[in-house]
Amino acid sequence: MAATKKMDLLTAMEQIVEKAKGSKLGAEFYREANIYIGYVAERLELTKEQSVMLALFVENSFNFSICISNFCEFLDCRTTRIIRYMADIDVLEKREFVRCSRCGKHSTYRVPAEVVDAFKRNEKFVPKNCSGLSCQGLFAEIETLFELREAKELTFDAMVENMHHLFDCNKQLLYVQKVNNYDLFEEDEMMLILFSHLFVNHSNDNIHFYDIDFLYDDKSDWRNCKTLLEIGGHVLIMEGIVENNNSDGFVNRESFRMTDKAKRELFSELNLAAMDKNIKRGDVVKTEEITPKRLFYGEKVGAQVAELGKLLEDEQYNHVRARMKEAGFRCGFTCLFYGEPGTGKTETVLQLARQTGRDILQVNVSQIKSMWVGESEKNIKRLFDTYRAKVKDSAIAPILLFNEADAIISKRREGAERAVDKMENSIQNIILQEMETLDGILIATTNLEQNMDKAFERRFLYKIKFEKPTVEARMSMWREMIPTLEEEDSRVLASKYDFSGGQIENIARHYTIGNILRGESKNIVEELTVYCDSERLEPPGRHRVGF
Asked: Which residues pair with 250 in a beta bridge?
């Protein structure tokens, strides 16, 4: 008993394995290893035979394809001897101590990393309960499996086995039932689940070959699959589950998406707002995920941002909004942040959202402009429908952000003849109409305000011009980002280089990386000057012409 008090699981298993080598698992082995076998059996609630098998598996846990024949060689016994233990191995599999991959006539086993980790901590392994998941919960687990596969922590067979186990535990879900009803081969089934994962978890409807190739261990299998996708002969295309994207009216053989039909069949439980072709639902930035950051403004811009920040505080926002409605005015808040790149426009939106507890629905303009004529207009309408739903469902109204909105607020084309020009005019007209009836907060940022259509200019209630920082502001930025910098040195840099905040941050990052790689610099200003000249691109004394 005294010996077992000092024992742990890995020590006991090590002793079992050591005594099992060449033993044929005879009676003498069980007598010599009894104390260690008993310890494992009691701790993990296993029989003695199951404990011995588990110790042998853990000894081979570095191998993702453990064969039973390996045990025969190690134990110096016949296969028939190990066959007697197969019922015990089946129990280990059911308890999830091991996972079995059954391919053709041969079965191989592996020990999941979480099992070994539990034993390292001298803890009993308790399998994660993945039964009774919601469809959203299922896709969270699916994402984890694909991440492990992409990191090469799972073989293809192990991933398939894990995926099937996950599906077996959640047969109540319509998504699981639909996938099973397609009755696909394993490779095609995993491809379908991958397409589903990319759409549901990443809103990705523009899937390329580089998004898929990690699935395959065998490069020849991948080449065959790629060829079938390119020529439209893949079963997922032929069954109407996947289709090619389109570029300027031509089929793009290297870009794919799930069909509307497949989305309707598979994702009814998820109540996704975007079920149609080529829709990007927008990237939601949660307020709690925004990192606090100190920003530096000139006096005028600082006062404008502070005023807007007070207005967006929820209590004040609701009060002003209600009064505006009573007076018969539009109650939406539309704001334009304009100015040179790197002056803090986007970061200001993030910090205002963080300060006022608002999420951000960030619009990817390039995704809104569908490659299918007529789809872009539908996409922009759905975007505003989605935003209205979020405002209605949220305790605090989120911000709708059109970042780098130059492409959609520029001057409309008169007498447009080309389909693309007509489409862009249609998008702009829809946005103008939506801004008229907006009940929420819309912020657009642009670097090219001189190209803005006058109709948009009139509809922005707040307009803030972000200018390059003054010498004093640049000094503060240098000191904030590189605290070891002396005040006089920051003045030299701020006076010599007319940089934006974004450029100064770039240089500070370069400097920090250099310190990590080479140690702290003995002459900070000299090293920073090198980075400054590199950031500036053009030689000193010359000025860039044009944009």
From this structure: 247
Q: pTM for this one?
A: 0.46
Look at residues 466, 493, 513 and tell me which one is the last residue of a structural domain: 466
Return the H-helix or E-strand segment holding 310: helix 299-311
Q: In 3-state terms, what secondary structure has residue 444? A: strand
Q: Which of these three, 238, 272, 306, is where a domain ends?
A: 272
Measured CA to CA, the distance from residue 312 to residue 290 in angstroms comes to 17
Kindly state whether residue 170 falls inside one of the protein's structural domains.
yes
Continuous H helices in 438-523: 454-459, 471-481, 487-496, 501-518
List the CATH number of the domain containing 195. Answer: 1.10.10
Residue 289, classed as helix, strand or coil, is helix
Q: Is 426 found in the same domain as 528?
A: no
**Tokens 């948009």, residue?**
456
Please tell me the total count of domains within the chain: 4
315 lies in the same domain as 290? yes
pLDDT in tens, 257-297: 999 889 988 998 886 644 343 334 446 888 998 888 888 88
Residue 546 lies in a domain: no
375 in a structural domain: yes
Token pair for residue 539?
């030689």
pLDDT in tens, 453-498: 888 888 888 999 998 888 888 888 888 888 888 888 888 888 888 8
What is residue 287's DSSP assignment? G
CB 459 within 8 A of CB 334: yes
Which amino acid is located at 48 in the chain?
A: K
The answer to whether residues 299 and 260 belong to one domain is no
Please report, for residues 1, 9, 10, 62, the alpha-carbon distance to residue 14 in angstroms, rounded to integers and kept in the order given: 18, 9, 6, 15
What is the helix (H) or strand (E) element at residue 102, kind and residue range?
strand 99-103
Beta strands in 381-456 (DSSP E): 399-402, 441-446
